[in-house]
């Protein structure tokens, strides 16, 4: 059954119901896209800087530092998608005086949902793919800032077997 049946329905609110169902389906698809794009991993390596060992490198010292960057979905993004949907539906119920006005409210909500999903995917993937080896602080500790609130992230340092959550 197609949602287009609502256009031919004799019920007064059929068009509004169709618009609400469309917004719900789009929100679910946006959530699935965000979840899929934010559940990934990348391995990065960088050569050991010259003189890092303070002279001669110890026997068996690694020639490069490697780490695994984990990108994980943020529950805050999924919550934001759901809140936009719920608030838009409640606004339709409280404010809309016609099917056209409800369609306009839901259209704005769908636009916001698409923008939130797109920004989440872009920021999360940019963090994952543009981030080289995690920079080291002056004390030698790894310094990684995950793309919060768009996604969660963690770094699993392979060279010395450390894990950092963000």
Strand order of the largest sheet: 1-2-5-6
- Share of residues in strands: 15-25%
Number of strands: 6
Q: What is the makeup of the main sheet?
A: 4 strands, antiparallel
Shape: rod-shaped
Helix share, percent: 40-55%
Instruction: Output mean pLDDT.
Output: 81
In the predicted model, the low-confidence regions spanning at least 5 consecutive residues are none
Number of DSSP helical runs: 4
Run of helices and strands: HHEEHHEEEE
Distance from first to last alpha carbon: 45 Å
Rg: 24 Å
Broad structural category: alpha+beta
Descriptive account of the structure:
By secondary structure, this protein is α+β, with helices and mostly antiparallel strands. It has 4 helices and 6 strands; from the N terminus they run H-H-E-E-H-H-E-E-E-E. The chain has helices at 5-8, 14-37, 75-95, 99-130, and strands spanning 40-47, 64-73, 135-136, 142-143, 151-157, 162-165. The strands form 2 sheets. Strands 1-2-5-6 form a 4-stranded antiparallel β-sheet. It has a two-stranded antiparallel sheet with strand order 3-4. The radius of gyration is 24 Å and the shape is rod-shaped. The two termini are 45 Å apart.
């Amino acid at each position: 059954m197609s949602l287009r049946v609502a256009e031919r329905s004799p019920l007064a609110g059929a068009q509004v119901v169709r618009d609400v169902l469309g917004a719900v389906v789009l929100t679910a698809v946006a959530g699935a896209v965000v979840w899929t794009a934010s559940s990934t991993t990348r391995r990065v390596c960088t050569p050991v800087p010259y003189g890092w060992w303070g002279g001669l490198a110890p026997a068996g010292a690694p020639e490069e530092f490697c780490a695994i960057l984990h990108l994980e979905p943020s529950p805050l993004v999924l919550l934001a998608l759901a809140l936009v949907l719920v608030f838009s539906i409640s606004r339709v119920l409280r404010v809309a005086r016609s099917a056209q006005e409800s369609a306009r409210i839901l259209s704005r909500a769908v636009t916001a949902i698409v923008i939130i999903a797109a920004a989440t995917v872009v920021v999360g993937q940019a963090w994952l793919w543009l981030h080289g080896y995690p920079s080291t602080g002056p004390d030698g500790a790894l310094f990684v800032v995950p793309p919060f609130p768009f996604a969660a992230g963690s770094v699993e340092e392979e060279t010395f077997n450390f894990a950092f959550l963000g």
